[in-house]
Amino acid sequence: CxxxxxxxxVKMLKDDPLYYVTYKxxxxxxxxxxxxxxxxxxTDPVTISSGEDYKDLDGxxxxxxxxxxxxxxxxMDGMGAYSVxxxxxxxxxxxxxxxxxxxxxxxxxxxxxxFKADNLLPGKYKIVFEKPRGLKFTSSKTVNVxxxxxxxxxxxxxxxxxxx
Length: 164
What we know:
By secondary structure, this protein is mostly beta strands. It is built from no helices and 12 strands.
Protein backbone atom coordinates (compact mmCIF):
# COMPACT_ATOMS: atom_id res chain seq x y z
CA CYS A 1 0.00 0.00 0.00
CA UNK A 2 3.05 2.24 0.04
CA UNK A 3 2.40 3.64 3.51
CA UNK A 4 5.00 5.96 4.88
CA UNK A 5 6.78 4.73 8.02
CA UNK A 6 4.82 5.74 11.11
CA UNK A 7 2.11 4.81 13.56
CA UNK A 8 -1.33 3.81 12.26
CA UNK A 9 -4.75 2.72 13.55
CA VAL A 10 -7.58 1.06 11.66
CA LYS A 11 -11.15 2.23 12.32
CA MET A 12 -14.15 0.14 11.30
CA LEU A 13 -17.52 1.71 10.50
CA LYS A 14 -20.62 0.44 12.27
CA ASP A 15 -23.66 1.47 10.26
CA ASP A 16 -26.05 -1.43 10.89
CA PRO A 17 -27.37 -2.04 14.43
CA LEU A 18 -27.87 -5.74 13.65
CA TYR A 19 -24.12 -6.23 13.19
CA TYR A 20 -21.49 -6.14 15.91
CA VAL A 21 -17.72 -5.87 15.68
CA THR A 22 -16.00 -9.19 16.38
CA TYR A 23 -14.59 -9.53 19.89
CA LYS A 24 -10.99 -8.41 20.36
CA UNK A 25 -8.33 -11.07 21.02
CA UNK A 26 -10.70 -14.06 21.15
CA UNK A 27 -9.15 -17.37 20.19
CA UNK A 28 -5.66 -18.82 20.22
CA UNK A 29 -4.37 -17.60 16.86
CA UNK A 30 -3.19 -13.98 16.85
CA UNK A 31 -3.17 -13.99 13.04
CA UNK A 32 -6.90 -14.82 12.92
CA UNK A 33 -8.44 -13.02 15.88
CA UNK A 34 -9.86 -9.51 15.80
CA UNK A 35 -7.78 -6.50 16.79
CA UNK A 36 -10.72 -4.07 16.90
CA UNK A 37 -11.79 -2.57 20.24
CA UNK A 38 -15.55 -2.63 20.80
CA UNK A 39 -15.46 0.72 22.61
CA UNK A 40 -14.47 2.85 19.60
CA UNK A 41 -14.12 0.36 16.69
CA UNK A 42 -10.39 1.05 16.32
CA THR A 43 -7.20 -0.97 16.69
CA ASP A 44 -4.36 -0.10 18.99
CA PRO A 45 -1.67 1.92 17.16
CA VAL A 46 0.71 -0.14 15.02
CA THR A 47 4.12 1.12 13.94
CA ILE A 48 5.04 0.40 10.32
CA SER A 49 8.67 0.50 9.19
CA SER A 50 9.84 1.27 5.68
CA GLY A 51 9.10 -1.65 3.33
CA GLU A 52 7.27 -3.64 6.03
CA ASP A 53 4.16 -5.72 5.30
CA TYR A 54 1.97 -5.86 8.42
CA LYS A 55 -0.52 -8.69 7.88
CA ASP A 56 -1.86 -9.17 11.38
CA LEU A 57 -4.24 -6.22 11.76
CA ASP A 58 -7.77 -7.44 11.28
CA GLY A 59 -11.36 -7.37 12.40
CA UNK A 60 -14.81 -8.30 11.25
CA UNK A 61 -18.52 -8.14 11.91
CA UNK A 62 -21.10 -10.68 13.01
CA UNK A 63 -24.86 -10.53 12.87
CA UNK A 64 -26.96 -10.94 15.98
CA UNK A 65 -29.33 -13.86 16.25
CA UNK A 66 -33.02 -14.07 16.99
CA UNK A 67 -35.44 -16.60 18.36
CA UNK A 68 -39.10 -17.33 17.94
CA UNK A 69 -40.93 -18.95 20.81
CA UNK A 70 -44.32 -20.49 21.29
CA UNK A 71 -46.43 -22.17 23.93
CA UNK A 72 -47.94 -25.40 22.56
CA UNK A 73 -50.96 -27.02 24.20
CA UNK A 74 -51.14 -30.78 23.89
CA UNK A 75 -54.26 -32.85 24.66
CA MET A 76 -54.26 -35.20 27.65
CA ASP A 77 -54.48 -38.90 26.70
CA GLY A 78 -57.97 -39.76 25.50
CA MET A 79 -59.22 -36.18 25.64
CA GLY A 80 -58.82 -35.33 21.96
CA ALA A 81 -58.38 -31.70 20.96
CA TYR A 82 -58.19 -29.15 23.74
CA SER A 83 -59.82 -25.78 23.28
CA VAL A 84 -58.38 -22.87 25.24
CA UNK A 85 -59.83 -19.44 25.77
CA UNK A 86 -58.47 -16.99 23.20
CA UNK A 87 -56.78 -14.93 25.90
CA UNK A 88 -55.23 -17.82 27.90
CA UNK A 89 -51.88 -17.53 26.11
CA UNK A 90 -51.86 -13.79 25.45
CA UNK A 91 -49.75 -11.44 27.57
CA UNK A 92 -47.73 -14.11 29.36
CA UNK A 93 -44.27 -13.15 30.56
CA UNK A 94 -41.24 -14.68 28.89
CA UNK A 95 -37.84 -13.77 30.30
CA UNK A 96 -34.52 -14.38 28.55
CA UNK A 97 -31.35 -14.66 30.66
CA UNK A 98 -27.77 -14.91 29.40
CA UNK A 99 -25.21 -17.48 30.61
CA UNK A 100 -24.23 -15.25 33.55
CA UNK A 101 -27.86 -15.07 34.74
CA UNK A 102 -28.41 -11.46 33.69
CA UNK A 103 -31.84 -10.59 32.31
CA UNK A 104 -31.44 -9.79 28.61
CA UNK A 105 -35.05 -9.33 27.48
CA UNK A 106 -38.50 -9.46 29.03
CA UNK A 107 -41.29 -10.11 26.54
CA UNK A 108 -45.05 -10.73 26.39
CA UNK A 109 -46.71 -13.37 24.24
CA UNK A 110 -49.24 -12.53 21.53
CA UNK A 111 -52.74 -14.02 21.45
CA UNK A 112 -51.38 -17.27 19.95
CA UNK A 113 -48.81 -17.66 22.73
CA UNK A 114 -45.93 -16.62 20.48
CA PHE A 115 -43.04 -14.23 21.02
CA LYS A 116 -39.96 -13.05 19.13
CA ALA A 117 -36.61 -11.93 20.54
CA ASP A 118 -34.23 -10.04 18.25
CA ASN A 119 -30.68 -8.69 18.56
CA LEU A 120 -29.31 -11.55 20.66
CA LEU A 121 -25.55 -11.77 20.88
CA PRO A 122 -24.10 -15.23 20.24
CA GLY A 123 -24.20 -17.34 23.39
CA LYS A 124 -26.22 -19.57 25.67
CA TYR A 125 -29.58 -18.40 27.00
CA LYS A 126 -32.18 -19.62 29.47
CA ILE A 127 -35.79 -18.89 28.53
CA VAL A 128 -38.23 -18.78 31.47
CA PHE A 129 -41.93 -19.11 30.65
CA GLU A 130 -44.83 -17.94 32.84
CA LYS A 131 -47.36 -20.70 33.56
CA PRO A 132 -50.83 -19.89 32.20
CA ARG A 133 -53.85 -20.53 34.42
CA GLY A 134 -55.56 -23.88 33.89
CA LEU A 135 -52.51 -25.39 32.22
CA LYS A 136 -49.33 -27.10 33.40
CA PHE A 137 -45.90 -27.54 31.83
CA THR A 138 -45.27 -31.04 30.51
CA SER A 139 -41.58 -30.78 31.38
CA SER A 140 -40.06 -27.55 32.73
CA LYS A 141 -40.87 -23.87 32.70
CA THR A 142 -37.32 -23.18 31.45
CA VAL A 143 -35.71 -23.97 28.11
CA ASN A 144 -31.98 -23.65 27.41
CA VAL A 145 -30.92 -22.56 23.93
CA UNK A 146 -27.73 -21.57 22.12
CA UNK A 147 -27.80 -18.69 19.64
CA UNK A 148 -24.97 -18.50 17.11
CA UNK A 149 -23.90 -15.44 15.14
CA UNK A 150 -26.39 -14.85 12.36
CA UNK A 151 -28.92 -17.44 13.58
CA UNK A 152 -32.27 -16.29 12.32
CA UNK A 153 -35.37 -17.33 14.20
CA UNK A 154 -34.14 -20.19 16.39
CA UNK A 155 -37.35 -21.96 17.44
CA UNK A 156 -38.10 -22.39 21.15
CA UNK A 157 -41.16 -24.32 22.26
CA UNK A 158 -42.63 -25.14 25.65
CA UNK A 159 -45.47 -27.66 25.85
CA UNK A 160 -48.47 -27.33 28.13
CA UNK A 161 -51.27 -29.68 29.09
CA UNK A 162 -54.62 -28.96 30.74
CA UNK A 163 -54.84 -29.36 34.50
CA UNK A 164 -57.69 -31.52 35.64
